[in-house]
Amino acid sequence: TQGEDNSSEFIKKYRTCRRQMRECSGEADHHEGMSSDDELTPTEVTEFQKSKDNVLEDSRKVFEDVHADFCDIRKILLKFQEWKEKFPDSYCDAYISFCLPKLLNPLIRVQLINWNPLEQNFTELEEMPWFRAIKEFSDAKNVSESK
Fold it and tell me: What is the pLDDT along the chain (147 residues), one digit of tens a residue?
């Protein structure tokens, strides 16, 4: 197709330009096949960052019209914990353990939008507030089941 032809032509020109720059700078330690065509131009980096910033800004607005009790994982799990303690039969009959992943999924996904495990200083999943809240809920669940 036309787009692919333009893309491969651009890559060839880009390679040639990089080779000429290396030759002019006297870079003798270059080995053929060790360079990457995946390097982004400054314009592409700027466009990517702008697009990423827009997505992050939009993600902060997703739950802005939702009451705090229904968009905070810890508060949601506390409600389920109270239900389980007050009405264990009803809680069990409702198969809540099967429903919680689907219920919490959108809330967790929004919190993971900016998470990148490939960055040097990324936050471990286990350190994230939503993970700790679920772990505490699970630990409390296990304690109450063992009674």
Answer: 555 556 667 777 777 777 777 777 766 566 666 666 567 778 888 998 999 999 999 999 999 999 988 999 999 999 999 999 999 999 999 999 899 999 999 999 999 998 988 888 889 999 999 999 999 998 886 665 555
Nearest to 38 by CA among 18, 60, 59, 58: 18
Q: Provide the residue type at 138 as one letter.
A: S
Tokens 């990457």, located at residue = 36
- Residue 73 exposure: Cα atoms within 13 Å on the Cβ side: 23
Please name the residues in contact with 29: beta carbons below 8 A apart, sequence gap of 6 or more. none
Report the 10 Å Cβ neighbour count for 101. Answer: 10
The answer to whether the CB of 77 falls within 8 A of the CB of 137 is yes
CA 72/CA 108 separation, integer angstroms? 10
73-86 and 129-146 helices, crossing angle to 10°: 10
pTM equals 0.65
| Number of continuous H segments (helices) and E segments (strands) in the chain | 6, 0
- CB contact at 8 A, 90 and 98: no
